[in-house]
């Protein structure tokens, strides 16, 4: 009986020890599992935080690149507007040059026409009437020159690209020539009035004398007009050259902007591809850790 009780007690104690060991082992395993889960959770959170920070960094970088691209696009639009403006200016300068050449040609044709009419009238010995008509012709020529100079002054006022000193000199020259012609026009009007008191027999003598005066005055006036017109031609030519250079620079700059835009787009595309590859790799890494 005693042995049976001892054996039973021994079995109970052994079973209790085994149960305690099992509980201790389970507790140890639970603690190990909890520790591993905590470490994994920390690692997972750290990985997610890194991904979040990198995503934020990428987003800010993309925003910065987008703003830079928009700025370049706006600059390109401005350059295209400037190119259109330069083209219109060039067309206007060509038109001015053509108008000036027409004015010069008109003066030459008027002079040739005057000589033909003058010869026919003189041959008909209508000295007195011819003298009056000649005076009117001179006034018409002076008025034509005055109108040309007025047109030149208007062109100078419209022109904003010419350097200030040169522009003021050109305006001053044209204004001075305009005053000279207006004084000459006033003198011719006085001469015309004077003709009313001249007797017919004196007309031929007065004609010859007046013709000499007119010829001298015309040569001087033609020389001055030639200088003014030639100066205007030079100004137009210089502006056309400046405009041509500006257009060339504008084209080069626009081409450079377009090239930079294309390069920026390609760089953005590559960066996005690399970012997607990196995100995919990290996602796979996290999934592998979860499975493990």
TrEMBL record:
Residues 270-292 are annotated as: Disordered. Keywords: Coiled coil, Cytoplasm, Cytoskeleton. Residues 1-290 form the Trichohyalin-plectin-homology domain. GO terms for cellular component: centrosome; keratin filament. It is found in: Cytoplasm, Cytoskeleton, Microtubule organizing center, Centrosome. GO terms for biological process: apoptotic process. The keyword ATP-binding does not apply. Residues 19-148 form a coiled coil. Pfam families: TPH. Belongs to the TCHP family. PANTHER family: TRICHOPLEIN KERATIN FILAMENT-BINDING PROTEIN, TRICHOPLEIN KERATIN FILAMENT-BINDING PROTEIN FAMILY MEMBER. This is Trichoplein keratin filament-binding protein. It comes from Casuarius casuarius (Southern cassowary).
């Amino acid at each position: 009986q005693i042995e049976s009780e001892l054996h039973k007690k021994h079995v109970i104690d052994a079973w209790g020890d085994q149960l305690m060991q099992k509980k201790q082992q389970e507790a140890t395993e639970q603690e190990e599992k909890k520790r591993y889960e905590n470490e994994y959770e920390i690692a997972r959170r750290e990985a997610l935080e890194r991904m979040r920070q990198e995503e934020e960094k990428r987003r800010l970088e993309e925003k910065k690149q987008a703003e830079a691209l928009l700025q370049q696009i706006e600059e390109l639009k401005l350059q295209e507007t400037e190119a259109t403006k330069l083209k219109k200016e060039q067309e206007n300068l060509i038109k001015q040059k053509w108008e000036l050449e027409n004015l010069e040609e008109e003066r030459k044709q008027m002079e040739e026409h005057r000589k033909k009419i003058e010869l026919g009238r003189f041959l008909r010995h209508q000295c007195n009437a011819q003298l009056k008509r000649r005076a009117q012709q001179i006034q018409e020529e002076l008025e034509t020159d005055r109108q040309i100079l007025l047109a030149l002054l208007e062109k100078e006022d419209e022109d904003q690209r010419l350097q200030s000193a040169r522009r003021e000199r050109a305006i001053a020259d044209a204004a001075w020539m305009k005053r000279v012609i207006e004084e000459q026009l006033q003198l011719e009007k006085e001469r015309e009035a004077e003709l009313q008191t001249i007797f017919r027999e004196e007309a031929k003598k007065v004609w010859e004398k007046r013709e000499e005066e007119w010829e001298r005055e015309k040569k001087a006036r033609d020389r001055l007009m030639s200088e003014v017109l030639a100066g205007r031609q030079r100004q137009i030519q210089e502006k056309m050259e400046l405009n041509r250079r500006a257009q060339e620079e504008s084209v080069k700059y626009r081409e450079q902007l377009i090239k930079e835009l294309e390069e920026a787009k390609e760089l953005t595309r590559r960066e996005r591809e690399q970012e997607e590859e990196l995100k995919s790799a990290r996602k796979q890494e996290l999934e592998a850790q979860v499975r493990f």
